[in-house]
Design goal:
The protein has seven helices and ten strands. The protein has 235 residues and is an alpha/beta fold.
Amino acid sequence: MPTPHNNAKPGDIAKTVLMPGDPLRAEFIANTYLENPVCYNSVRGMLGFTGTYKGKTISVQGSGMGMPSIGIYSHELYTEYGVENIIRVGTAGSISDEVNLRDIVIGMGSCTNSNYAVQYGLPGTFAPIASYKLLKSAAEASVDQDAVFHVGNILSSDTFYDDSDSLAMWKKMNVLAVEMESAALYMNAARLGKNALCILTVSDCPLKNLSTTAQERQSGFTDMMEIALRTASAV
């Protein structure tokens, strides 16, 4: 049944959902790649669509920015709508010297400065990781597309404007890139027995003072979108 954040009805949402942060990117993916897309959600402007891609039913919905937002939307998709797989498609800032503007980063693990895991009351530190079957499929799709991609640890941060030099410290641990959602998504998936993956396009390199435009971030990162769709169609 509908939730406070999603007015979709049972059966409106596919088992696999692509989740960009920006709802306008969700609309772009639906209109560009899906056949017969139907909008199932517009609550709070967080657009969601379901259509078919190469004969498979797939949904795409915005998550909003930050772990609290994707934590809410992914939890409801998993628990209220029967979703099994969520693939985050987003942007990231490069940390590693080897990761350049417009490269693809696939998050095998998600380090975080967030307290999201405190809710579980664990007697230690939880390490959020991607689902292997989605990770393997995305890596294979990246190879097939001749994309420049990297697989490894990413940082999921609670802060966009950080009053410290923390990225340099994460760089020492060979973390590839920074974004703001993956850790909460991976933890929700682990707790609920579901699958999750984060596929990112590098939109800026804060340690190199390089960046892309807002329009490029909304609709220009098609390699990432196509890799995610191929991954979604394979599960």
